[in-house]
Amino acid sequence: MVHRQVVRTLSIIQGMEIFVITQTPDGKDIFFKIEGSGPDILLVHGAASDADTMAPLVSQLSGRYRCISVDRVGYRRSTHLSRDTTVDEQAHAIEAVRKACTSGPLWVFGHSSGGNVAVGYASLFPNNVRGLILMEPALYALYPPDAFRPAINRMRNELIPMFQRGDIGDGINGFVELLELSRETLVELGRLPSTTHPAENWLPFAHDQPFVIDWCPSESDIQRLTHRILVLEGDRTTPLLRNICRLLTEKLPKAQLTTLVGCDHVAPLLRPRLVAEKISEFIATYGNAF
Questions:
Q1: C-beta separation of 135 from 53 below 8 A
Q2: Closest among 179, 188, 39, 213 to 109, alpha carbons compared
Q3: What residue spans define the domains of the chain?
Q4: Which of 41, 58, 84, 186 has a CA that sits 20 to 30 A from residue 268's CA?
């Protein structure tokens, strides 16, 4: 059977095109929106987020880039899941969005677990990626077996079951504790405008985090990850995530690590101008290398 990819334009709002794409071959709806013009950059959000979470960063980038923001499989306006997702499923959804937007390769930005998806996508579709920008990808499986076991085991054995049972509030509190976000950061996050109830984007956590905890690029994946890669870390981020940045940079042949001073894990939301500056510098340096 031949599956046909169908793109439906929902609306155009102040120059921002909003699309839904039916992913083939299994027909999942993937929501995405486009803003700006210039080289294509696709932005992949992390846990408890959606395409709208990227708005602060998009506002800084859309003057020079065509920004494509997506709701990952399982999240908000994309098809919801009743089972655990996989990096393969997430990557094929990203590829469906790319096909709907452009015939050529694009830059990919991934935040937190969105960085996991970005790495998986680039390893599965290497010719469709110009380069990667990763803000503290949550690639916990890069750690050796004895590293950060209490935190990772807590995520697996305590927090994920909370979300599976519907104990959203306790699950959120536990996850925020693991991220070690400062009170100042939490206050700033609370001031950001939201287009949905916060719990809505936490609901997919139960089916999203198992692959986040268990997957990292294999040696064969690494061989295909020959792209220029910028890894961003905040100097105020918990070691649980920050050390992953260093492990990944050492593992990937063309990766470079940049530290954002005065920033933590949510820098794309709260310090979007600085993050956008680093992205723009990276693309300006390597944009003609593809």
A1: no
A2: 39
A3: 6-286
A4: 84
What is the β-pairing status of strands 66-70 and 29-35? Answer: antiparallel
Q: What residue type is 189 in one-letter code?
A: L
| pTM exceeding 0.70 | yes
Closest CA to 220 of 78, 123, 89, 94: 123
The SS3 assignment for 228 reads strand
Task: Please name the CATH architecture into which domain 6-286 falls.
Answer: 3-Layer(aba) Sandwich (3.40)
Q: In sequence order, what are the residues at sequence separation of 6 or more whose Cβ sits closer than 8 angstroms to the Cβ of residue 76?
A: 31, 50, 51, 196, 200, 201
What percent of the chain has pLDDT above 70?
A: 92
CA distances from 289 to 49, 106, 145, 228, 279 (A): 32, 13, 37, 9, 15
pLDDT in tens, 167-176: 999 999 999 9
Place of tokens 């929106």: 33
